[in-house]
Amino acid sequence: MREAPTPLHQHDSPAVPEIGQVLELLEIAWERGRGMLGTAPLSAAQTRVMFIIEREPGINLSTLGRRLSAAAPSVTRLCDRLQAAGFLRRTPRPQDRREMQLELTDAGFAHLYDIRSRRKQALHQAMSRMTPDAQHALATGLGALCDAVGEPAHTLDRRESA
Fold first, then answer.
1. Are 107 and 87 in contact (CB under 8 A)?
2. How does pLDDT run across 12-70, given as a tens digit for each residue?
3. Are 37 and 30 in contact (CB under 8 A)?
4. Rounded to 10 degrees, what is the CA torsion of 145, 149, 153, 155?
5. CA distance 65 to 74
6. pLDDT 10s digits, 110-120
7. pLDDT of residue 58
8. pLDDT in tens, 119-147
9. How far is CA 33 from CA 13, 28, 38, 39, in A?
10. Quick count: other Cβ atoms within 10 Å of Cβ 88?
């Protein structure tokens, strides 16, 4: 006899609502501080493409499309705009010159660095109003969440210090 499945809500962590609220607050903060925290001159979608390419240098258009869950024409247009802005370079893959690989240019890396720097400054300001114990608990919890999602926290630390 089969056992009845456990209701999904029984697996919910008590932290899920708080994490959801934090994400909403970050969205509000990004919106309020669009000038300081925004991704201009790029759209959020173009910036997301850049983050993916940074994590996977040499990715091709079809793999990028799968990561974005987007159709090939949309991905091509996003990359065309990034290339026109000077943030993206397409080069033939050495193993198969018919296939193009995507890489960020120095200007692309600089743009992502600028976005991260501004966001880091805003987060430092907010966290400076927290107690040291609360800061430590947040860092520990976020590290564990990153590990659970699939990107180890040490990877984030390495990218931030670059």
1. yes
2. 666 667 777 777 777 776 666 555 555 667 888 898 999 999 999 999 999 999 999 89
3. yes
4. -170
5. 8
6. 999 988 888 88
7. 93
8. 888 788 888 888 999 888 888 888 887 78
9. 31, 8, 7, 11
10. 22
Task: Categorise residue 69: left if φ over 0, alpha if ψ from -120 to 50, beta otherwise.
Answer: left
- Please give the DSSP secondary-structure letter assigned to residue 9: G
Tokens of 105: 């240019």
What are the structural domains of the chain? 42-107 (1.10.10.10)
Distance from C-alpha of 25 to C-alpha of 145, rounded to nearest angstrom: 18
CA distance 18 to 80: 39
| CA 83 to chain CA centroid, nearest Å | 20
158: confidence class by pLDDT, cuts 50, 70, 90: very low
Closest CA to 108 of 46, 35, 31: 46
96-104/88-93 β-pairing: antiparallel
